[in-house]
Amino acid sequence: MTRAAGMRLSMAGGTVVGNRYPANFDVLHIDAVHPLVVVADGMGDGRGSAVAGRTAVDTFVGKVVPEPDGLRAAVAEVQARVRAAGAGLGELTGCTLTAFVAGERSPGAWLVQLGDSRVYRLRDDLLELLTTDHTVAWLGAVHGWWPAGSAEAHAARYRLTRYAGHPGAPEPDVLSVTVRPGDVYLLCTDGLTDQVGYERLAGVLSGGGDPARAVETLLTDSLAAGGEDNTTVAVIRAETGGGDD
């Protein structure tokens, strides 16, 4: 449990390899002091995937400043370092990067989004997806290019339009959100959302109690659904409070 601008934030996270890959190419960082949560999901299952995820998270954590220009500058440094790290590997070196950065003096937070990991918020019994997937599949869904569930839509999920390590060094989405008592934020990789449905996510998050229990339940759900990908989950619960426990 930690404090941010008069709000108590309890947070927990976890990750599982699943059944498809021999190793975990997701990276999770949780800092309960600032507080800060960062999730990355490597592209593919090679060394470039592992290098990109670790480089991106370590760089972002070292450079993060909780204001828009500082966050964009941190991601620009991430882009430069991931590209440099991948220069000698001779293979795809890229990853997603999604972060929750609490404000220091206001009851709010910043969300940073690059790729197709996600941030959801449960408020007043409504679970909302706050981030956009930077994929061709998202564009196709919005513009009706293909029927839902079609082979074209499925293939387009793997075509990212923005990611860390992209040769064009695209900027992230930087979103300002309020944080109210009772809010629950979920950060996750697509290993969760591709396997566990919206109704189940909402049901688990609305159960109240310890975020660690929600994390454990969702990770177990991803394995029960087949474990077709690495899955990483972080849950943040906001409560009224003026001091650290």
Could you please describe the fold and organization of this structure?
This protein has 245 residues and is of the alpha+beta class. It has a single domain (2-129, 165-238), classed as PPM-type phosphatase domain (Phosphatase 2c, domain 1, 4-Layer Sandwich), CATH 3.60.40.10. The protein has helices spanning 47-63, 68-86, 136-143, 151-156, 190-193, 198-205, 211-224, and strands at 2-4, 7-16, 26-31, 36-41, 97-102, 108-114, 118-123, 126-129, 173-178, 184-188, 231-240. The strands form two sheets. A six-stranded antiparallel sheet has the order 1-2-11-10-7-8. The chain has a five-stranded antiparallel sheet with strand order 3-4-5-6-9, with helices on one face. Helix 1 (47-63) packs antiparallel against helix 2. The longest helix is centred in the N-terminal third of the chain and has 19 residues, at 68-86. It is globular, with a radius of gyration of 17 Å. It starts with a strand and ends in a 5-residue tail after the last strand. The mean pLDDT is 93.
Salient structural properties:
245 residues, alpha+beta, five-stranded antiparallel β-sheet, 7 helices, 11 strands, 28% strand
